């Protein structure tokens, strides 16, 4: 006689809705999918229709939205500002709070809000939980979170470093401790989340103390289509000398820069192929990408003082031995010695790719943001059921 143990995780983006149904009794994935091209030719017209498609798919697999086994819905929300620093049960007031943060994340929060509204309409009786991409970084000390601009201006407009990919950094830093056979509290980790978006974080004893993304996900590492760090005067220069408008510059830096801007491709696999053919632009893009990574590894080593592990995750981090090798080669002075053979082995499990003798472990840990969101959601929405499940196994 167990209660509802299933959690539906929804990641509503501007043009897609990704979903996973996870049974928290054994953390097994029962269904997953994506509805793409929302509002585009060939796609569904809007998020309401997208969620209806999700509901239909789940029904076809025998676990529809009306299933009594469904315990809660967990929503990924990109920006929680300074208000939401932990997973939060969604009420009208919380939803209004997330909407108020739209100016800080105009590309992301509106889609998250729509997803929440539609899901609440479909199952108003069900607990729904918002899990924020910024929450894990809310522990950043002021010294790391503050930009060195006029404090009154910064406070008036909410300008500070918030950080993103928090669910991934939280999950991966804990999984790294487990891989080392230690408690998170005893481990200092640099996490390199290298996907199409990319960010680094410095995690001391399970607590995030620095991260590369800032007010928005534009700052920091070189990404698929985002520039990462820039002299802010580049923006003034583009305006004054290039005659570009704000939206145009926003698009340039977010959508046409990074690897794509440097060589015309944002997929590291294609860049690897082109480098092998001697393509100079692809080589330059790779070199700029890796140089920025090394900078952050060095900076975060100094921030942490003692580093136990450096962990790669997400599409590039999990799959590109070349990026891992180039980013960490020759760092013996920082205590890092890679094992080229281990690094070259492909795999889907969490694993070490450093030499046995390396004082700093180098790990590859597949991220699982959906599972992390499901755990957060279940922990908040169904504590009684959780206890049942915990004690039944
Ligand atoms: P993500 O955002 O985590 O899904 O990562 C997507 C990115 O991972 C893609 O744009 C690719 O550049 C990269 N990627 C995926 N598979 C590989 C691979 N086998 N080798 C290198 N890069 C990869």
TrEMBL record:
Its cofactor is Mg(2+); Mn(2+). It is found in: Cytoplasm. It holds the Pfam family Acetate_kinase. It comes from the Bacteria. Substrate binds at residue 76. It catalyses: acetate + ATP = acetyl phosphate + ADP. GO terms for biological process: acetate metabolic process; acetyl-CoA biosynthetic process. Its EC number is 2.7.2.1. The active site is at 133 (proton donor/acceptor). Pathway: Metabolic intermediate biosynthesis; acetyl-CoA biosynthesis; acetyl-CoA from acetate: step 1/2. GO terms for molecular function: acetate kinase activity; ATP binding; magnesium ion binding. Keywords: ATP-binding, Cytoplasm, Kinase, Magnesium, Metal-binding, Nucleotide-binding, Transferase. The keyword Transmembrane helix does not apply. Its main location: cytoplasm. Mg(2+) binds at residues 11, 369. ATP binds at residues 18, 193-197, 267-269, 315-319. The record marks 165, 226 as: Transition state stabilizer. Belongs to the acetokinase family. Homodimer. Catalyzes the formation of acetyl phosphate from acetate and ATP. Can also catalyze the reverse reaction. NCBIfam families: ackA (TIGR00016). This is Acetate kinase. It comes from Actinacidiphila bryophytorum. The lineage of its organism: Bacteria, Bacillati, Actinomycetota, Actinomycetes, Kitasatosporales. The gene is ackA.
């Amino acid at each position: 006689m167990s209660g509802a143990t299933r959690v539906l995780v929804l990641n509503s983006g501007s043009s897609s809705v990704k979903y996973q149904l996870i049974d928290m009794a054994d953390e097994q994935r029962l269904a997953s999918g994506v509805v793409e091209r929302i509002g585009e030719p060939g796609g569904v017209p809007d998020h309401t229709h997208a969620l209806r498609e999700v509901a239909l798919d789940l029904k076809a697999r025998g676990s529809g939205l009306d299933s009594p086994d469904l315990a809660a819905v967990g929503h990924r929300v990109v920006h929680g500002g300074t208000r939401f620093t932990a997973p939060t049960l969604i009420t009208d007031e919380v939803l209004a709070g997330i909407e108020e943060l739209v100016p800080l994340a105009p590309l992301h929060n509106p889609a998250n809000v729509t997803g929440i509204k539609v899901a609440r309409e479909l199952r108003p009786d069900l607990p729904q939980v918002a899990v924020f991409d910024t929450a894990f970084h809310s522990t950043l000390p002021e010294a790391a979170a503050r930009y060195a601009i006029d404090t009154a201006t910064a406070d008036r407009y909410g300008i500070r470093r918030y950080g993103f990919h928090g669910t991934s950094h939280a999950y991966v830093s804990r999984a790294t401790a487990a891989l080392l056979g230690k408690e998170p509290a005893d481990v200092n980790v640099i996490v390199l989340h290298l996907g199409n978006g990319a960010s680094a974080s410095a995690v001391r004893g399970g607590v995030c103390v620095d991260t590369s993304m800032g007010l928005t996900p534009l700052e920091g590492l070189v990404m698929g289509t985002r520039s990462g760090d820039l002299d802010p005067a580049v923006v003034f220069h583009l305006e004054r000398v290039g005659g570009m408008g704000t939206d145009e510059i926003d698009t340039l830096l977010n959508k046409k820069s990074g690897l794509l801007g440097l060589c015309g491709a944002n997929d590291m696999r294609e860049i690897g192929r082109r480098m092998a053919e001697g393509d100079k632009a692809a080589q330059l893009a790779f070199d700029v990408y890796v140089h920025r990574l090394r900078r952050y590894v060095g900076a975060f080593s100094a921030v942490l003082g003692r580093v136990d592990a450096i962990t790669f995750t997400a599409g590039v981090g999990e799959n590109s031995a070349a990026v891992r090798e180039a980013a960490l080669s020759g760092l013996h002075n920082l205590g890092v010695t890679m094992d080229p053979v281990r690094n070259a082995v492909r795999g889907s499990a969490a694993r070490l790719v450093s030499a046995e003798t390396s004082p700093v472990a180098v790990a590859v840990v597949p991220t699982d943001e959906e599972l992390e969101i499901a755990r957060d959601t279940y922990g908040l929405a169904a504590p009684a059921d959780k206890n049942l499940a915990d004690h039944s196994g």
